[in-house]
Amino acid sequence: MIQVAINGYGTIGKRVADAVGAQPDMEVVGVAKTRPNFEARTAIDNGYPLYAAIEERVGLFEEAGMGLDGTVDELVEAADVVVDATPSGIGAENRSLYEEYETPAIYQGGEDADVADVSFNARSNYEDAVDADHVRVVSCNTTGLSRVIAPLGETYGIEKVRATLVRRGGDPGQTGRGPINDILPNPVTVPSHHGPDVNTIFPDLDIDTLGMKVPATLMHMHSLNVTLEAAVDAADVRDLLAGESRLFLIPESFAIDGSGKLKEYALDAGRPRGDLWENCIWEESISTEGRDCYLFQGIHQESDVVPENVDAIRAITGAADAAESVETTDESMGVGF
Ligand code: NAD
Fold it and tell me: What's this model's pTM, rounded to 2 decimal places?
């Protein structure tokens, strides 16, 4: 069993912990928290050993009646691999801790690419992370783009990608984020940082991205235009994408008109936290005009990177090859509608 530590038990960390716990070959050795808040309570209730991320705060947990198993140093030492799911920038600060205990580490997309030896997307470059010491799972948006770019590139060749990313202002729990009544070009400069981030996975890809922020919390929405190297029928592209386990083609008959109904569908389907681990592509939006292919996809920012973190754990520990890992992850989490 691979012993996995989770440092940072927030939006991403708690989901990764549950996904790791569902794997036949992994165990959550513990989670580290900075504060004894509701998520710390949930970690204890879920049976995860709880560690203090900051030694000076041990007393706060005691005062809140939350028993600790130790501090983050002990957790990192005990683990075969640590998943760092702390806020952007903290992961880079934590790198020296993981190095001190020679524990391989996985970081999240909020970190700069140079925090790790490899930026990772299971569908696109799993092998690059095999036996690496520091791996960064790319952001929710880059994950969503990579999952579509990989099969299109392999099958048809890609001349150029243009993507407009309509991004949620904040996650549902991020009460301090906005905008609350506006539409922001964000960043206002072109390209947005997403294109260069996709290039950490596909170094030779020609891609331009534009970003916006809107008053929404449920999901991001991508409007994608991929110029292929040959003219292709839309029906062939649909068949190709339908064959990908982490792409969900929303059937027209479902009458899902946006993120709200998508989340409702996930909740009705019994998904934990209403998570949508797959890119949600409107099937009838997949269109072609000569060599140009177009589609709309919804990206659930809080969860699409979760199966990717599980695969990164197998890659970094050399526990399985890409196909084996993705299959095990998908089956144990229930990825794919
Ligand atoms: P979050 O704020 O929900 O969770 C971070 C957790 O880490 C919190 O519980 C916080 O208390 C804790 N923390 C803070 N400082 C810490 C420290 N020094 N040591 C240990 N824990 C500490 O953040 P999140 O949304 O889960 O984001 C985590 C990472 O994942 C970021 O790099 C982010 O960019 C990336 N990411 C986030 C999303 C998203 O939409 N939420 C999507 C993809 C990737």
Answer: 0.98
